[in-house]
Every structure is written in C-alpha cells, then in structure tokens.
Amino acid sequence: MKNCYIVGAADFAPERFTPGEGDYIIAADAGILHLEKLGLRPDLVLGDFDSLGHIPDYPDIEVSPVRKDDTDSMLAARRALERGCGTLLLFGCLGGRRLDHTLANIQTLAWAASQGAAAYLIGEGCCLTVLRGGECLRFDARYSGDFSVFCLGEDARGVTERGLSYVLEGAQLTASFPLGVSNSFTGERAYVSLDSGLLAVYWADSPALPLPERGVSG
Q1: By CB neighbour count within 10 A (0-12 exposed, 13-18 middle, 19+ buried), where does 4 fall?
Q2: Which pairing describes strands 213-216 and 135-139: parallel, antiparallel, or unpaired?
Q3: Does an H or E element contain 32, and which?
Q4: Do 3-124 and 130-216 have matching folds?
Q5: Which of 147, 148, 151 is closest to 176 using CA atoms?
Q6: Which run of H or E residues covers position 74?
Q7: What global pTM score does this model have?
Q8: How confident is the model at residue 195 (pLDDT cuts 50, 70, 90)?
Q9: How far apart are CA 53 and CA 73, in angstroms?
Q10: Cα separations (Å) of 202 from 155, 166, 196?
Q11: 36 pLDDT exceeds 80?
C-alpha cells in the first residue's frame, strides 16, 4: 500500500519530507504554505481554513465547517485510509503554539493504529508512532539519543525493550505513571514490542536514517 504525506501548519522538517512516485500528499489547512515554499502541489487540500484565513484556489479541495468533531489532521488521516494508504507520515503536526493539537495528533496516531495503519508524527529531530499489541519496532545501530514510551488508555502489557540503556522484559505500563520516559539508544540494534494495549513510542531522529522496521513482535 502507498504512503500518505499529511502536512499541517506547525513546525516542519523539510529534510525528512521525501514523497516518492505514487505517494499521496494532503495539505491540512495552513499546511499548504509549507508545500508552496517547496514548490510542491498536494493531491488534496482540506480543512476549515481558520488558520490560513482564506480558502485557497486548488482544484482538489475539501472545505469543512469550523465546528466539527475531527481536527484537520484527523480528517486528513481518514481520507488517507479511504484512499488505500497503509502508512501515514504527518509533518507540521508537532510543536507550535498549540499543545492541544499536538496531543490530538498523538490520538490520531492511536486511531490509525486501531485501523491497522502505521502512522508517524515527524518533527524537527524527533518522531513518534503508536504500536498496538503484537507489533514491534526494530532500530538499527546507527540511532542515538533519546527514546521514550508511554501507555495510552488501558494498561500496555508485555512491554519489552532491548538494546537500550534501560531494558524491559514483559513489563506492564500504565497511563498514570511515566515509567517509560528518558531511555536512550546505546549504539546497538534496539527493539520495542508489546503484547496488548497501545504504546506511544518517541525517539530522536535524523534525516540520514530510515524509519525503524515495523513488524510483528517475537
């Protein structure tokens, strides 16, 4: 399945923005400004355009009401899955002045995971994704810097972390205590998985490195 690049209006990491032939690009509201600076034309522009301040002139555009249940990023994620995209890469969706939207975008990752999709928030020097029970991430030995995990919702059970400064084997993490924060890579291959629940995974990132390998735990 193809990738979908979703672009919001917050801090943008252009060096990581490398869509390939056949990938689908969605601009969410003022995220269109990032794409215009790069000279790129999205496949779809959507949102309520309260951030942009006007409705842009694009042939493929979806205008939504300001009063709605979905954020513009969430609406873009829905459209991506409707178009058969299996991997969602969200840019311009971390940082900025709206912490509430960052939290909403992490919930969007959790929603995508519940739909069987792989979704990533890609920021300036960091990435986040959400794993569901039975999934894992494998990082090659070139990764360095911070690594953290956080339980989302019901307890995350059977959490395993290897190749990191602090090792976990079959641990249980809760949403009310940040036990998984401030781990770090060690120059070895690293691994994280869980048996059940949802786990937000944060790591320091470099544009020179590929995204970690995502697979079935075990």
Answers
A1: buried
A2: antiparallel
A3: helix 32-38
A4: yes
A5: 151
A6: helix 72-82
A7: 0.94
A8: very high
A9: 17
A10: 18, 15, 18
A11: yes
